[in-house]
Amino acid sequence: MAAHPTIADDQHVPILIVRDLKVYFETGHLILKRQRTFVKAVDGISLDIPRGETLALVGESGCGKTTTARSIVRLTEPTEGSIIFDGVDISKLRKNQLKDYRRRVQFVFQDPYESLNPRQRIFNIIATPIMIHRLARTQAELSRQVDQLLLDVNLEPQLTRNKYAHELSGGQRQRVNIARALASRPELIIADEPVTMLDVSLRLEILSLLEHLRKSRGLTMLFITHDMAAARQVTNKIAIMYLGRIVEFGDADSVIRHPIHPYSKRLVEATPRIQLNRSATHEDLGIGSNIDALTSAIHLPSGCRFHPRCKYAVEKCRITEPPLIERQPTRFAACDVVDVN
């Protein structure tokens, strides 16, 4: 059995290795009892992503996906654990090393309406990372790079470069977000719910664009979503996250067709019209979640975290938290009850 779920093998060395990552946020303390309380946003997850591949991290809002992503780009400091990028522990990076790391690892934000500076023209928004990292020697070269990035995300430079964000549609703004992320010539892209704020008709276009850019540029991608159908469009590997823990990991088709963990089953059931091929229509991506509200990450249940919502739960589920282990070849799940044969 493998110690950690991984999509790496001898031919695909991981560019990103996360081990036992924990991120706790203190919420206050009771003065008389002197008891501190914490939100365990991320509570001991491990994952590998090989260079040039995509891993989808899937789960409900509040499960810890975005906190994981923010830790990887060092916007949030981990409480425990390690994040290794290209063989280097990022917690040890200082000043210029950290600046170069953030050039190599870029973020595509969820909200295209809030993530662009309304006071800057599109040209300046995309040009800024190029100038910060000194990737253009002349103004003419800078202009050429910006225009090429706009073309790469299917925007016409002459019609776009001098506009402000409010003059663009939501889909156009997200394309600008992607162009800005590409401007520093990154190796790893973290896309945090990149289509959630978009109209259904635009989602497949943006997902297809991200997949095309990953292949054409040799990028590695961590794709964060609550949407199983969207995850299937951009990756062959899925990790399911629940209340700070990864509860299932495996090949996307297998996870969707035959989920092992009861929570994974609920996610699949809450995703209407999921298609297992890459030719999904726009309507197939117009999904939401009908799953119950999350259990508090402050007052976690004993044993399996999902047992209060699980129809398969037995007494031992309330006592012992099952480990994430290989239940089938290359299929990992944190459930001791469901029959996986």
- Tally of DSSP helical segments: 10
Describe the oligomeric state of these chains in a short phrase. Answer: single chain
* Topology, number of strands: 12
Enumerate the strands of the largest sheet in spatial order, edge to edge or round the barrel. 6-7-8-3-9-10-12-11
CATH topology term of the domain at 14-86 and 187-333: Rossmann fold
Give the SSE string.
EEEHEEHEHHHHEHEHEEHHEE
Give the termini separation. Answer: 17 Å
Output the CATH homologous superfamily of the domain at 14-86 and 187-333.
P-loop containing nucleotide triphosphate hydrolases
Q: What is the mean pLDDT?
A: 87
Second CATH tier, the architecture of the domain at 14-86 and 187-333: 3-Layer(aba) Sandwich
Helix content: 25-40%
CATH class of the domain at 14-86 and 187-333: Alpha Beta
Low-confidence stretches: 280-293
Rg from alpha-carbon coordinates? 21 Å
Shape: globular
Instruction: Report the sheet-strand fraction.
Output: 15-25%
Largest sheet: 8 strands, mixed
Structural class: alpha/beta
